[in-house]
């Protein structure tokens, strides 16, 4: 899959940014930063969003201008989600080595261990990883869901 033309990507960023710039002052509030990033295909956790906000709004104004937003969008939201780490995590959950894990087990682990996902993040991941609601997830589907931007 070819990478998007940088100008096309920038135009998409601008369009999404403007949708959330309610008063037209060239800024969005930090409270909607994660929503805008997700609308553009990123998958930051709440902790990653807080870190980005600290970087782009160190004064605590509660606002992000377009230039700061573009910088935030350039950050890799998957620092620790490489395939080897995901394979190791999968192997812990797939104790019977069937190539399948239950959605229930995945939700439990991701909601209670390490950097916990919020209930809405867990719902989104569950829907993506198990769209037919079978209750189980295969490794290729799990990998795709976890590495999705």
Q: Describe it for me?
A:
The protein is mainly alpha-helical and 149 residues long. 55% of the residues lie in helices and 8% in strands. It contains 8 helices and 4 strands, in the order αβααβααβααβα. It has helices at 6-20, 33-39, 46-56, 66-73, 83-93, 103-112, 119-129, 139-147, and strands at 27-29, 63-65, 100-102, 136-138. It has a two-stranded antiparallel sheet. The chain has a two-stranded antiparallel ribbon with strand order 3-4. Helix 1 packs across helix 4 (66-73), helix 5 (83-93) crosses helix 8 and helix 6 (103-112) packs antiparallel against helix 7. The protein is elongated and about 55 Å long. The model has no long low-confidence stretch (mean pLDDT 82).
- Report low-confidence residues grouped into runs of 5 or more: none
**Helix and strand run:** HEHHEHHEHHEH
Mean of residue pLDDT values: 82
How many helices? The count is 8
Shape: elongated
The secondary-structure class comes to: mainly alpha
Indicate the multimeric state: single chain
Give the proportion of residues in helices. 55-70%
- Which strand-content bin applies to the residues? 5-15%
The neighbouring-strand order within the major sheet is: 1-2
Radius of gyration: 17 Å
Number of strands: 4
Intertermini distance: 14 Å
Largest sheet: 2 strands, antiparallel
